[in-house]
Structure formats: C-alpha cells, structure tokens
Amino acid sequence: MTYKGIFILVIFTLSLFSISNADADRIKEELEKSPRHGEWVKITAADEHVVNAFIVFPEVKEPATAIIVIHEIFGLTDWIRLVADKLAADGYVAICPDLLSGMGPEGGGTDSFESGDDARKAIRNLTPKRVNTDLDAVRKYVQELPSTNDKVAVSGFCWGGARTFSYAVHSDKIVGAFVFYGSAPAVEDVPKITAPVYGFYGESDNRINATIDATKKAADDAKVTYEPVIYEGVGHAFLRRGMDENANEAQKAAVKSAWQRWIKLLGKL
Question: Reading across the β-sheet that carries 197-204, which strands appear in turn?
Fold first, then answer.
C-alpha cells in the first residue's frame, strides 16, 4: 500500500471512531434505559483463556435462538452492546465477546486501553487460532444456557464481519452467519462452510465488494449458501453510521432495510 493509501485508511478509521464518540452519551443512555436484562459474564476457553462478554436476554416465554455479535476493530464498544440489546428486543439472546480480553494493560480488555489506536494495534495481533478458540467457548457457553434453544448464529461488523466469515469456515456448529461489510475468506476455504452466510454491504465500499463475485461463484460451485445484498447510497460501516442521530436519509433507509432482513433471516434458522 502507498503512503497515500495508508494515510486515507488512517483518516477513515479515525473518522469512524470519532462518530462513535460523538454519539456515546446517547448510546449509554439508551442502554441504561433498556428494560431487558443484560449482564457481564466470564467464559473460560479450552486453553484456560478467560473471555469477558456482555449478554442480553429477550423478554420471551420460550427458549430463544442465540446470536454472537463480534465487534469491530475498535473492540467491544457500547455501540456493539446496543446492537445486542436491539437483537434481544427482537427476541434473541445476544452475546458480545470482548476478543481483546486479556490483551490490555494488566490483563484488561477493550476498556483498559488508553486510546483507540492502542486497541486497534492489539486487535491486529490476534491470531485466527486465538479468535476461533474464544468464539468456540462463547458458542458453547450460550448454547448450553437453559434460556436458549441450541441454535447459535454468528454476526459481526467490519473486522468482526471478516471474523464471522472465517468462523463459518472453522465451525460446523453454527446455524447461520451474518457478515456486515467484512472481507471474505480465501475462495479455496469457502467449500468448508456448512451454515448459510448472508452478506450486508454498502454500495460505496469497493475494497470489500470487489471480492463478492469470486466468493459467490466459489459458494455456488460448492453448493454453499451465500447471499450478499448491496445497499444503495451508503458505504462502509453503514449500520453504525445509520444508527447515529446525524445519519442521512440513505443511511437510515439502509439500516431499516438491513435490520428487517436480518431479523427475517434469523427467524427462518
């Protein structure tokens, strides 16, 4: 990548982080007012690594389908917790693992880093094995809860979207994967996927979208369900941006359409 390209990527990433900071008070207030039960839990992975996670329960009569919500490159933020709360409002047990657990100062997680830059540097040091081991533990934990029905889906945004796609390659124990503007795995790994994968992409995000056609062909050839949808008038991170109070009409429309699709697909699992 050229110096110009690196500069643009840094500015873009910082702009996303500043958007979340500007809306932080509203998000915190919305979480505090939620009538649903949310709590922090500690989950021990197979290698004894402890993952801190936030879980939200729906107000329903019967055991519910669970969904893992994988955070962006910023780590586990209040916005991700808000997404989980909204999923619970729609009837699902939603759990958000902090995949930076133990990676911060004095063994802390996302909130222990002094800056967003530090968190992003740490997340880039996570290995696929570390991420998949932690997600295996989270999947097992939520699947064994008496309040769930044994069905576990996985979802994620940007960095988390890519991890969602790669986890679909790794695990045959999930019932669906929801990739929000995350990069795809190598085409030779696509045939390993056993669960349906649903993609959510912004129109102005060619860095990610350029791989959709090749991934779709590999999936079709392997008889793997991969259904990508591109939302008009928006770019990368459109769900986060569209949930901001200052979102434009195209962003709001994309969020509404994507969310309705997400919940409809979850209901069919």
Answer: 37-44, 50-57, 93-98, 64-70, 148-157, 176-180, 197-204, 226-235
